[in-house]
Amino acid sequence: MVRRLPKYCVEDTDRYGNIRVYFRKAGHPKTRLTGIPWTDEFMEQYKAALQAQRPDCIAPDPARGLPQPGTWRWLCVEYFRRCATYLRMDQSTREAYRRILEGTFEEPISTQGNASGLKFAGLPVTRMTTKHVRALRDRKIEAPEAANSRVKTIRSVFKWALDDELTANNPAAAVTYFRSSSTGHHTWTVEEVRKFEETHPIGTNARLAMALMLYAGVRRSDAVRLGRQHLVDGWLRFTAFKNRNRSPVSIELPVLPELQRVIDGSKTGNLTFLITHQHRPYTAKGFSGQFRKWCDDAGLNHCSAHGVRKAGATIAAENGATEKQLMAIFGWSEAKMAAHYTRKAQRRKLAGAAMGLISMSQDRPKK
């Protein structure tokens, strides 16, 4: 008997009632397949989708063709194809690494008007030096975080190449990062949280999303995956989505009364608390876009989903949470991030206690 659909194929009904067939494999985006299943036309698309989503498949670049062996672009392609560390990263992280590295290909090697016309894509790896990597970093000087990301990803390529004996040195190892004054995404204040809650009462998806991220301290990638199956005897138990393939972190948190009240007053899905108007779970990207709209509706254009978790850490630290307690709440494996919040909270308390010492109205002993 012929199966109804080939492996990894699923049916999906759009909002107009039309049935569509998609190729869907875990860790990869869905691909629409047209035509009738098992026909020659359909199977050609199926085979192409299957080939394109193999981990070792690198689509050729029509503009440049296959990379010349031994060049920088060739080394990056080999990294995309063979590096186990890269292949085990989350899809979004792999995409970010790839964008950064491919962005170096068209950069001119020469800093003197590029008289030779040679670009980094064609530079032999054996001739790539620390000076070259520094030049790639300095061309992003207006965006220090982007510059540092370039150095980081280039280092990772050469680290793998050294282990695989494709090169004899790592020219990025000696290139330092730029100091950045950026503190990242804006951290929500208590007043901003209250304004958001006034705009989005209990029963709305917006309020439920805020409660999950604030009172459980979860990332957006976890907020869209949590459901009632993770509630056990008043505790929230789950494995963090981030780094789940490399160094998974199991998190157990008591459900605060504030969070339980919002969950009880909300309409939730079967496997996820948060569901779209189509009664489906949110994707991480879709959730970010929707949360951006919820913030705008509340007049909080400068706020985002990223800053809610930071607000939770700030509030906990100011209420006396230790570094180890913060690590347990937020799933951090190292104390560096927790120490940032505890130091900040300690400075604020010390300043508050000491400011009175500056006052000229302090009682002084009589001479």
Automatic annotation (TrEMBL):
Q: What would be an example GO MF term here?
A: DNA binding
Q: Which residues form the Tyr recombinase domain?
A: 183-355
> Pfam families this protein is in?
Phage_integrase
Keyword Oxidoreductase listed: no
Gene Ontology annotations of biological process type: DNA integration; DNA recombination
- Quote the InterPro entries the UniProt record gives: DNA_brk_join_enz, Integrase-like_cat_sf, Integrase_catalytic, Integrase_recombinase_N, Tyrosine_recombinase_XerCD
- Coiled-coil regions, chain positions: none
Q: Which domain of life is it from?
A: Bacteria
Which key words tag this protein in UniProt? DNA integration, DNA recombination, DNA-binding
Family indicated by similarity = Belongs to the 'phage' integrase family.
What is the protein named?
Site-specific recombinase XerD
What is the protein's species of origin? Answer: Camelimonas lactis
